[in-house]
Automatic annotation (TrEMBL):
InterPro entries assigned to the protein according to its UniProt record, in alphabetical order: P-loop_NTPase, Rab, Small_GTPase
Pfam families xrefs: Ras
Protein known as: RAB6A
Keyword set includes Nucleotide-binding: yes
Organism: Mytilus edulis (Blue mussel)
Length: 168
């Protein structure tokens, strides 16, 4: 079983990404994960059972680190329409890096809300450059509203975990 942790500030669409993958449609009533109760989801990507830890954006660092320590993949999500969420990626990545050997885990950078182009504050080049700077394993942009690249994200998580052989 592969374990994946989704982390970042609140309202970037982490829960909606997981929900869209599971249900294959957008649900505007998906509730944000509360800080005291990380959301756990078991899903099947094809060959791997994936246990998702969807943490609330304001979850305490110690909780995030504890969850990430048991994961094969960490997905850092920011909101393309909210520049501050993008700015917090460095801090979150550094916090995780201080406690976890990132050579033993696959790290993805995800820019969500590609459907809201009229409100975009973070363009694709900025996301790609952040991916290169942080040396994450993959950069992808998604829309949990339209489903753009949602399946691709989970397929790439599965493929990277299998190919890399990285284990926490």
């Amino acid at each position: 079983m592969s374990s994946t942790s989704y982390n970042q500030k609140k309202y970037v669409g982490k829960s909606s990404i997981v929900d869209f993958y599971d249900s294959k449609h957008y649900n505007p009533d998906v509730y944000a994960t509360s800080s005291g109760d990380p959301y756990h989801e078991n899903t099947f990507t094809g060959e791997l059972n994936v246990h998702v830890h969807d943490t609330a954006g304001e979850t305490h660092e110690a909780t995030v680190i504890a969850l990430c320590a048991r994961c094969n993949a960490i997905v850092l999500v920011y909101d393309k329409t909210y520049k501050q969420s993008f700015g917090k990626i460095d801090d979150l990545h550094n916090s995780i890096k201080q406690h976890i050997n990132l050579e033993k885990v696959v790290v993805f950078l995800v820019g969500n809300k590609t459907d809201e182009t009229h409100e975009e504050q973070v363009n694709t080049d900025e996301g790609y450059n952040k991916h290169k700077y942080l040396k994450t394993d993959l950069f992808i942009e998604t829309s949990a509203k339209t489903g753009y690249n949602i399946n691709e994200l989970f397929n790439k998580i599965e493929a990277e975990v299998k190919i890399s052989g990285k284990r926490p």
